[in-house]
Amino acid sequence: MKIKTKITIGIGTILLTSGIVFNLTFRNILNERMENTIKESVSQIMNSTMESVKYRNSLSSTEPNEDKLKNGADYLVSYISLNNSCNIQIRDNSNKILASNTAVEFGTEIDKNSTKALNGSAVILIKYSNSSVYGILSYPIYIDDIQLGTLTIEKEYNDIYLSNLSTINLITVSELVIFLCIFFTALLITSTVTHPIIALTEGVKKIEEGDYNFSIKSKHNDEVGILSKEFINMKDKIKEQIQTIKEEQLKVETLEKHREEFFNNVTHELKTPLTAITGYSEMLKDDIVIDPDFKKRAVERIYVESDRAHKLVLDLITVSKGQTQISEAISEIHMKPLISEIIEDMSLKANKYSLNINYTIEDGIVLGQQNKLKQLFINIIDNAIKYSFNSNIISVNCYCKENFYFAEISNSSMGIPENVYNKIFDPFIKTNSSPDNYSSGLGLYISKQIVTSHGGNIYIINGEIVTVKIEFTLL
Known about the structure:
Elements: H1 2-58, H2 65-84, E1 87-92, E2 97-100, H3 107-117, E3 123-129, E4 132-143, E5 146-156, H4 158-186, H5 194-208, H6 223-285, H7 292-321, E6 331-334, H8 335-352, E7 356-361, E8 365-368, H9 370-386, E9 393-401, E10 404-412, H10 418-421, H11 443-453, E11 457-461, E12 465-473
Parallel strand pairs: 7-9
Antiparallel strand pairs: 1-2, 1-5, 3-4, 4-5, 6-8, 9-10, 10-12, 11-12
Helix pairs in contact: 1-2, 1-4, 1-5, 4-6, 5-6, 6-7, 8-9, 9-11
């Protein structure tokens, strides 16, 4: 009985110790990855804010650099906070706060960061507070190679923290259940199972070292055999969980990367019209323009760029809604009257560019959302109008074949460049060959989402004649 008790206690101790080591190790790995993701995010915000500071200071070229930063601090804090969903603090070279909306609870940390940043280097701090995590970054502000002060970014990453915490809790609970099952199974071991116990002990050590590619064979059908089988099941389940966690972690990292790329593209696309609007409006506001023709051009440019920004924001709203929007009712749609009406409307725009839309439309019934399909065909025909060259004809051919409804929209073109064609359905992908030059690069991306949501396919045939081919299943 004493031998049995010692063996049982020994196995339980080994299992418990290895479980604690595994949990702590994996917890540290997950936390390290989370913190690296946060550091990369605030570093990207830093790069974006540098451009904002430089542009703001360039608007007042006659003021001393120190006065530029002081007078523009409130605007920069408001502008950067709004565009990056974060809090900002700006200090001068004497470490005096010029403007701030950062949290009071991080005052000490921000003071230390700002003091270090005055020495000429960026400082990043990860701070855990109130069941969340924050990234705090301070860096020196330079204008014309002269240091004027420091800027601190404070951003909460609650979604990343909760995802990380959920993963850690899942691992902890799973391990506890598994190890308790194994421990209680070990109570059945007798003193005659020394060899299998050695094999189990070696297996525990391998798990502790991260090696899950082994097996323990047992010919016993007694308690020892049951323990060996349960141990292998435990090992396989842990291995599967680790693989699942790695896959989920990769998905999170990929999603974060796509979100950062999307944010950078949005910032880039909005920067051009907003820069022009701000520049011209400030010149008109300060009444520094005398030439009436220039004033007229400035007003026209402000109108054009405002309209461009408005259209881009509408496209972004469409994209950002994704699956969260209220779905339009699905109904049986006759394609001929729907497409004919769109062609009639779009012909007005085509005529402005001396273009004609020739069409042959066969009727067919498709199950879908009428407004979404209207948006789809408006986008495609509008693109054909924008990018038509060397011919004044746009062709629309719609027909039924077997169980599918096909729509082909063709226009004469200079051809789509290879680097654009390979990513044609990604957001913000566009060429510079449009006559109006104000494409947001979101039309084909939105069109692809609409077609996919209707269970259809869309692809583009490139060349001197560019053809967009769409297919839906007939009802």
